[in-house]
Design a protein that fits this description.
Structural class: alpha/beta
Radius of gyration: 16 Å
Distance between the termini: 23 Å
Strand order of the largest sheet: 1-2-4-3-5-6
Number of strands: 6
Shape: globular
């Protein structure tokens, strides 16, 4: 998927921050970040020019967990904690997110899907279940399509497939987005959690940097 399609995934999320109710929900989610357990192992793995941060939690059948746009592993909060009670959860900070640098290439769901296959191999996993949320769902889908031998089960949560699937009334809001949203977005818990752990906070993912 191209960076233009990547932008389409981000736009509904960013538009939503204009609503106070959504902002309050995001604040509650930020609290959940403190509920993530301590990883049994973590570190960085270099794949195709991107130095991915990963963390492994719990024991059991392996489950790859892929977060949404402007998120990081911890955005799953208590859901991650619950999953790690019976599964070996492999969390990854995706390209340009969390503790993973942006690198010198555009963000592409196709490329990151391929990256995940290589990352899993380097970590010693032959086959995993995969759960992806929003942007992470798009990456999970690409991983399953391109490397079906690696994915045993696939779960997609709030994952957009095409801009044609958006409600028509959202499209004018998308077109109206611009630099005026910068100040508002920077006060959100999602943005603050992003810059708090990013190795280079000024390197925002393509499609987001133009309006922040």
């Amino acid at each position: 998927m191209s960076s233009k399609a990547f932008i389409a995934i981000f736009i509904p999320i960013i538009t939503g921050f204009a609503a106070p109710a959504i902002v309050q929900a995001a604040k509650r989610k930020a609290v959940l970040n403190n509920a993530v357990p301590k990883p049994t192992r973590n570190g960085h793995v270099a794949v195709n020019g991107v130095n991915y941060y990963y963390a492994v939690y719990g024991t059991g059948e392996p489950l790859l967990l892929l977060h949404g746009g402007l998120g990081q592993i911890e955005m799953f909060g208590r859901n991650l904690t619950k999953l790690a009670e019976s599964r070996q959860v492999i969390g990854v900070d995706l390209q340009g997110h969390g503790r993973t640098t942006l690198g010198d290439r555009e963000i592409s769901l196709v490329d990151i899907g391929n990256d995940m296959a290589s990352l899993l191999k380097k970590l010693g996993y032959d086959k995993v279940d995969v759960l992806g949320y929003s942007m992470g769902g798009g990456i999970a889908f690409e991983l399953a399509v391109q490397h079906p031998d690696v994915v045993r089960r696939l779960v997609l949560v709030s994952t957009p497939f095409s801009q044609d699937g958006f409600y028509p009334e959202l499209l004018p809001q998308q077109a109206a987005l611009g630099a005026a949203m910068a100040a508002q977005m920077k006060e959100t818990p999602m943005y603050k959690s992003y810059v708090a752990i990013a190795p280079h906070p000024g390197e925002l993912p393509p499609g987001v940097s133009s309006i922040l």
